[in-house]
Write a structure and sequence with these properties.
- With 618 residues, the chain is an alpha+beta fold.
- The protein is 19% helix and 31% strand.
- The strands form 8 sheets. It has an 8-stranded parallel beta sheet with strand order 7-6-5-4-3-2-1-8.
- α7 packs parallel to α8 and α11 packs parallel to α13.
- The radius of gyration is 27 Å and the shape is globular.
- The chain binds alpha-D-galactopyranose (GLA).
- Alpha-D-galactopyranose binds next to loops.
- The site of alpha-D-galactopyranose has 9 residues, from loops.
Length: 618
């Protein structure tokens, strides 16, 4: 399965309403990589410069490292920016060969061309008629006819309403006849942005300054950290373009930290330096294959902060589908060298299983039991790749693993809090872990077929008096795994305990309970995922329907039941395939499971209705 399907499946699940909202243009399935003119050249751009940058993308190895887009920022048009018919035109002096010729040149080198506009009447440089407001369809068609591949759409001189303006341009691009990446630039995050843009600028403009606050590398990074709840393939939170190599004001450590942090949070990597004349040190940072691979990991997960000791922080980004590999960043914001430790239990890795690689130095550091401590210089980031085994003794809380909020009826989706931002409270009991949502909502929890059971308490949070919701859990292909009765405010929570064996992702849905969504502060409280490895104890005691029970282990399943009639039983694997059929006789029978792969199976008996028994084949 390609990573693409997270979005596609999610959209199809909620039917018309969601697909009408979704961008779903199949673009930017990993964070876009490229170059943009603004940071170094501001409004002083022309075709000689851009052709030179296109050439340099190839000759410097930037293209081979993965950089694809060459993006023009503000001021590629004349003043005023449109012809007598109202069509946008390229500046006839500075871009005298025209945009089509420039995109042809980029394409001939295996690169792509990006362009810039604004949702208002004028771009941020205030050039007359340069904004897209009211011209969305016409401008999108021009871009398509010029062979443009990427549009950055800014937020100055506004006339209309933000969401409606950006939605209009998103739709216009979709209808333009060409695949064009849509980059929203509105200097903030709104939950609707990932639904209509491939990336959205979460911050004010970056500057060639470490910070620590304000318009700077650290200032922008800090505004990015909470956006992990939205980031996913095709929808990237953008803390702005790179400052790496822009000057000698910042140290290589600082630029390395900047680049490594952008990779950890799965940010677009759009360089902003003059790549025609960059130093070897700058090139080494921008083209580091292992750092880029962290950014481009196909799961598209943004790192979360896992520990914070003032100036010393640890970030972790899951890589791949195994829940066993992470990129870890140890960031030292202080003015002196400091030790920073990462504990494997915080990543839910078996503490004895972990090996460590130093990414910047491309060196394997070997097995490191329990934790790893690095000495980190001032304003530096030590970047590690760690690999181990899932910790089967840990409690796997769903909010602790990767998830994505793709819609939420009102307010902000809350991680480990109620929709109102309080401690999750259901039926008089508080919960430290969970999702606080507002109907209608949808949260996706990728499981990568690693888990066996899912248990959760659902209900309306005590912070509201009214409200009602129905909770649904969907699995592969939109199959409904669970649906609650209507849960009303003030009522006792409902306990859910379902098999999730073989599920790629869970889709946690709340609907409004049929009475509108007023006060529908819905909680998914204490959601726990159980691994097959830690499940046999639970399952061996399970008593199924029709008086059946079983004990699994040592290559066999011992079956006990209340009757002795010969009965056909089937063993079904996580993909739903029948892997064993056998007639059992007597009240106690043995089924050999030798030769079956390790995993979770269900056992069904012919003629019984009700849930099948599950067992784990270790
Ligand atoms: C805004 C944007 C910048 C840049 C300029 C161009 O400030 O945030 O990234 O595009 O406009 O005028």
């Amino acid at each position: 399965m390609k990573n693409t399907s997270i979005r596609n499946t999610a959209w199809s699940l909620l039917g018309v309403a969601a697909s009408a909202m979704a961008l779903d243009n199949g673009m930017a399935l990993t964070p876009p990589m490229g170059w943009n003119s603004w940071n170094t050249f501001g409004g002083s751009i022309n075709e000689t410069l851009i052709r030179g940058v296109i050439d340099a993308m190839v000759t410097t190895g930037m293209k081979d490292a993965g950089y694809t887009y060459v993006n023009l920022d503000d001021n590629w048009f004349p003043n005023p920016a449109r012809d007598a018919s109202g069509n946008l035109i390229a500046d006839p002096t500075r871009f005298k060969s025209g945009m089509k010729s420039l995109s042809d040149y980029a394409h001939s080198k295996g690169l792509k061309l990006g362009i810039y506009s604004d949702r208002g009447s004028k771009t941020c440089m205030g050039i007359a008629q340069s904004g897209g407001y009211g011209n969305e369809d016409r401008d999108a068609k021009s871009y398509a006819s010029w062979g443009i591949d990427y549009l950055k759409y800014d937020n100055c001189n506004t006339v209309g309403q933000m969401q409606s303006d950006y939605t209009k341009m998103s739709t216009a691009l979709k209808n333009s006849g060409r695949s064009i990446v849509f980059s929203i630039c509105a200097w903030e995050t709104q939950p609707w942005m990932p639904e209509i843009g491939n990336l959205w600028r979460s911050t004010t403009d970056i500057a060639d300054s470490w910070g620590p606050t304000g318009w700077s590398i650290m200032g922008n990074f800090d505004k990015q950290v909470g956006n992990y709840i939205y980031t996913r393939p095709g929808a990237w939170s953008d803390p702005d373009m790179l400052e790496v190599g822009r000057s000698t004001k910042l140290s290589d450590n600082e630029y390395r930290a900047h680049f490594g942090l952008w990779a950890l949070v799965a940010a677009p990597l759009i360089s902003g330096n003059d790549i025609r004349s960059m130093s070897a040190a700058t090139k080494a940072i921008l083209t580091h294959p292992e750092v880029i691979a962290i950014d481009q990991d196909s799961m598209g997960v943004q790192a979360r902060k896992i520990s914070d000791n003032g100036d010393l922080e640890v970030f972790a980004k899951p890589l791949g589908k195994g829940f066993d590999t992470y990129a870890v960043g140890l960031l030292n914001r202080s003015g002196s060298t400091q030790n920073i430790t990462v504990n494997w239990k915080d990543l839910k890795l078996d503490p004895k299983s972990v090996t460590v690689r130093d990414v910047w130095n491309r060196t394997d550091l070997g097995s490191k039991p329990d934790s790893y401590t690095a000495s980190v210089q001032s304003h530096a980031l030590v970047l590690l790749k760690v690999k181990g085994k899932m910790d089967t003794t840990a409690t796997w809380w769903a909010p602790d693993i990767h998830f994505v909020s793709t819609s939420n009826g009102s307010g902000v989706f809350r991680h480990n809090q109620s929709n109102g931002g309080k401690t999750i409270t259901l039926g008089g009991k508080t919960h430290a872990k969970g999702f606080g949502v507002h109907s209608p909502s949808r949260t996706i929890v990728p499981l990568h077929r690693k888990f066996a059971r899912f248990q959760v308490q659902v209900g309306i949070d005590a912070e509201t008096t009214g409200g009602s919701a129905v909770f649904q859990i969907l699995g592969n292909g939109g199959a409904k795994l669970y649906e609650s009765p209507v849960c009303k405010g003030g009522a006792a929570p409902v306990s859910v305990d379902i098999s999730v064996a073989g599920q790629d992702s869970l889709y946690l849905i709340t609907t409004d309970g049929g009475d509108g969504n007023t006060n529908d502060h819905a909680d998914w409280a204490s959601p726990v995922l159980t691994l097959p490895e830690s499940m046999s104890a639970i399952q061996t005691k399970a008593r199924g329907n029709a008086g059946w029970s079983l004990i699994a282990g040592e290559g066999k399943v011992s079956i006990h039941r209340d009757v002795a009639t010969p009965t056909m039983v089937q063993v079904i694997d996580a993909q739903g395939r029948v892997v064993l059929s056998q007639v059992v006789e007597g009240m106690d029978a043995i089924l050999s499971t030798q030769g079956l792969a390790r995993g979770v199976y269900s056992l069904r008996s012919q003629g019984s209705n009700g849930p099948a028994l599950q067992f784990v084949n270790n």
